[in-house]
Specification:
heterodimer, A: alpha/beta, 2 domains, five-stranded mixed β-sheet, B: 337 residues, alpha+beta, eight-stranded mixed β-sheet, four-stranded antiparallel β-sheet, 10 helices, 12 strands
Chain lengths: 276, 337
């Protein structure tokens, strides 16, 4: 039995036994190579799940849909290691209760799918140990190196060209599991802290605000990048912020569920080089 | 005999138009994004794109537009109305769906108050459309009663020649005729075969959809809740839409100095209908998605006699979760009746 059939039947039995109220997975999309999020509430609906190498989206963002988990019931969800990493961060930030999530884990390597052992968050310690060594896709790594090799002036020009394309649709924010604020700072309008205008300066403001807020919290799933309708390589910013945090604090977001959020906690040994 | 514009004469046309005071806009792929930008020469254009990511609408209704500069002192309040510059433009290589989008939006911007920003640019522009010889899985013009050769919103229609060397010129309006008369020395008169049009399948039955939407019981249908589960609430579909036109007025600056701006807004955003009291009549994504569909295929038609969709398919093509007009309207067509 292939992994798709295995997970279809597992999802169906989770639903029919009443263990979970909903399973979030993938269904067929509008083209042969697209998959779209699918929400199954019955065993029958679970038969429509698709699981293959095109299932690259990080579905964990749906877990924080307003009201979804407020009844205390469990939800099943299809997750890759970067999705599991997201869940770990969300649990560490007290946004999710581990016992409300049933994970149908899978990994994609060289186009091949493998099922990950375990169903509860605690079962994935083996995956968590490997999270630090998860390599970024080679194309992303190349882009990072290209950016790092630039002079600050060239790099600024690069981001100016990219951010001038931004239309402030906030697809990056909405696709990101870590952007769970019920009211984002850019939507707070009494007073309006951040201008809504989508001119280049305003676009810089937005993208830098988001980069700062994701420092030490990004699961590197690339959802922002894929969501951007005007193709801004957003993950490059977050990768750099992740590196800064790793170098300053030896902290790697999402390695475990009991991490203390690095920029929201204090240690006597924290570097204080910025204090004059 | 029809007039032909050969590709190797396009540069001459651009020079003539620029010398006559036109800025020439065309699809340009730059930094991994296609949008309508000013070009100096034909080789700047990306005319092979099925559609650029951004619509031509952006050039008439920009994402942020300064309206008034204000300065307040103890003695007086100074305001200066900021209007777009009086430049004429040729929009070259527009697709029929994007051109139709402009005409669909005209009654909205000219309904009770004539929006000077929109109409100043509209009156100063000539839309030169190229018919589509290629389409993709998301194109859906034929589903909304348009086609790869519909002339709605166009001043000139160019039909690609089958030998790939140029276009057959068909002028639609006086404005379009004048523009091409000004370059008649660069056009040739010959008989040439035009390339086959793109075959865009009809993806949903729009009449059936309109009928369902107009039924008062549909407003509270469970359908909206089910389909909107997937929507993550970004504004990608609305901001890339050639007909979406909602905006918000914002003062940027401080109490004494600043600029009042007209900024794009989206019915997908939770803030869109948020009242000052804190009450939000559309407080869930399903009510917001319902509004988007109802507005396009029910309310807009009721007010202006036309659906607010020209079938470009960008909503689905660029949606992060593979959800757009086509898929929603297909689902409505398939509802049990």
């Amino acid at each position: 039995m292939g992994i798709q059939e295995q997970y279809r039947s597992e999802a169906a039995s989770l639903l029919s036994s009443g263990e979970v109220k909903l399973v979030i997975g993938f269904g067929a999309g509008s083209t042969a190579d697209r998959r779209r999020p699918l929400f199954a509430r019955t065993g029958e609906e679970a038969n429509r799940f698709v699981l293959d190498a095109s299932c690259i989206a990080n579905l964990s963002t749906y877990l924080l849909t307003e009201g979804l988990l407020s009844d205390g019931k469990k939800v099943g969800i299809f997750l890759k290691p970067d999705g599991i990493r997201s869940i770990n961060i969300l649990i560490a930030e007290a946004q999710l209760k581990p016992d409300q999530v049933v994970i149908l884990g899978y990994a994609i390597e060289n186009g091949q799918l493998t099922a990950l052992e375990g169903r509860s968050v605690a079962d994935f310690n083996g995956v968590n140990e490997k999270i630090r060594s998860l390599a970024l896709p080679p194309a992303v790594q190349q882009d990072i190196e290209r950016l790092e090799a630039m002079s600050p002036v060239e790099r600024f020009q690069f981001w100016q060209d990219q951010f001038s394309k931004c239309i402030k649709c906030y697809a990056c924010r909405q696709a990101c599991p870590m952007c769970y604020c019920r009211r984002c700072i850019v939507d707070v309008n009494q007073p309006q802290w951040v201008n809504t205008s989508s001119h280049t300066l305003g676009n810089f403001e937005w993208n830098i605000v988001r980069a700062f807020h994701l420092a030490g919290r990004c699961a590197a799933c690339g959802a922002c990048d894929r969501a951007c309708p005007v193709n801004i390589p957003l993950r490059l910013i977050n990768a750099r912020m992740g590196r800064e945090v790793r170098e300053a604090f030896d902290y790697f977001a999402g390695e475990s569920t009991d991490q203390k959020p690095v920029l929201a906690s204090f240690s006597k040994d924290d570097p204080e080089t910025f204090i004059l | 005999m029809t007039r032909i514009l050969l590709k190797n004469k396009l540069d001459d046309c651009i020079v003539t138009w620029r010398n006559a005071g036109y800025s020439v806009l065309a699809p340009v792929k730059r930094n991994e994004m296609g949008s309508f930008s000013e070009v100096q020469k034909a080789s700047d254009m990306s005319l092979d794109l099925i559609l650029p990511e951004r619509t031509i609408k952006d050039r008439f209704f920009p994402q942020t537009e300064p309206m008034i500069r204000y300065k307040i002192s103890k003695q007086q309040i100074d305001t200066e109305t900021m209007t777009p510059p009086d430049t004429k433009s040729v929009c070259f290589g527009v697709r029929p769906c994007d051109a139709a989008g402009l005409e669909i939006d005209d009654p909205l911007f000219g309904w009770d108050y004539k929006d000077q920003y929109w109409f100043k640019r509209r009156n100063n522009s000539v839309i030169v459309t190229i018919t589509c010889t290629a389409s993709d899985d998301f194109c859906m013009c034929t589903s909304v009663k348009l086609s790869p050769e519909s002339t709605k919103g166009s001043d000139v229609m160019l039909r690609p020649l089958s030998n790939g060397n140029g276009w057959q010129v068909e002028t639609i309006t006086e404005r379009g005729k004048a523009l091409f008369d000004s370059v008649s020395v660069h056009l040739s008169d010959e008989k040439a075969e035009t390339a086959a049009l793109a075959q865009v399948p009809v993806r949903f039955n729009v009449e059936q959809v309109m009928e369902w939407l107009a039924n008062p019981t549909s407003f509270e249908s469970q359908f909206w809740k089910d389909i909107a589960l997937r929507c993550i609430g970004c504004g990608s579909c609305t901001f890339l839409c050639p007909t979406c036109h909602c905006f918000d007025i914002q003062d940027e600056g401080d109490t004494y100095n600043g600029i009042r701006r007209k900024n794009w807004d989206s019915c997908s955003f939770a803030n869109f209908t948020m009242h000052t009291s804190g009450h939000n009549p559309r407080n869930t994504q399903s009510t917001r998605w319902r509004q988007r569909i109802m507005h396009k295929f029910n309310y807009y038609r009721g007010k202006f006699g036309v659906n607010s969709c020209s079938g470009c398919g960008r909503c689905t093509r660029q949606c992060p979760v593979d959800m757009g007009i086509t898929e929603t309207l297909q689902a409505i067509s398939n509802l049990p009746r």
